[in-house]
Amino acid sequence: MKTDLEIKNDVLEELEWQPNIDETQIGVVVENGTVMLTGVLDNFQKKVAAENAVKKVKGVKALAGDIQVKYGTNYQKTDLEISKAIVKAFEWNTAIPEDKISIEVRDGWINLSGEVDWSYQKDAAKRVAENIVGVKWINNTITIKEAVLPADVKEKIAKAYKRSADIDANAITVEVINSLVKLSGTVHSIAEKKAAENVAYLAPGVHIVINDLDVID
């Protein structure tokens, strides 16, 4: 099992490896496998990239991000400009039913709400909004429309895990209760844990996933 110091060193090396991240702007603290990121970055995409980089590191059990986003004068946008940019980006993305999503912007903080048919549509809306200049934070409250759960949803998820090169299907147990899926077992990184959760959300009829997977070395 990795020590906190070993995890910290690996995190710092992973941040340094990312071409769009200046690791000198980010503070890293590790306690019992939980990583805390601090610092100030000049756009939201860098914050997301830093957090995603940490999730790839083996031994990281949880991430507590406290990075702030402060845009320079040349990149500051009004709430109206940010809102218009998000609307336009949604229109260009075929995975997003823009007519079903409401956008609220206050001082660069984004709230997405509404109801969509699939979880991937909710995730796509968040990913697109993350790339808009001026965005400081995103609260994704979009809900998934109630759907009839197929009887073979458990089998579909299990098969999807077996197809994935990033997931150890044999170490994960899938339990389905109505439209809720519960995952238990073990994974080797929080990136694998998140990947397992994302796959479960893609199953038809699923709109709640309880991810109880444990991260082990």
Automatic annotation (TrEMBL):
<dbReference type="InterPro" id="IPR014004">
    <property type="entry name" value="Transpt-assoc_nodulatn_dom_bac"/>
</dbReference>
<dbReference type="InterPro" id="IPR051686">
    <property type="entry name" value="Lipoprotein_DolP"/>
</dbReference>
<keyword id="KW-0732">Signal</keyword>
<protein>
    <submittedName>
        <fullName>BON domain-containing protein</fullName>
    </submittedName>
</protein>
<feature type="domain" description="BON">
    <location>
        <begin position="78"/>
        <end position="146"/>
    </location>
</feature>
<feature type="domain" description="BON">
    <location>
        <begin position="149"/>
        <end position="217"/>
    </location>
</feature>
<dbReference type="Pfam" id="PF04972">
    <property type="entry name" value="BON"/>
</dbReference>
<dbReference type="InterPro" id="IPR007055">
    <property type="entry name" value="BON_dom"/>
</dbReference>
<feature type="domain" description="BON">
    <location>
        <begin position="3"/>
        <end position="71"/>
    </location>
</feature>
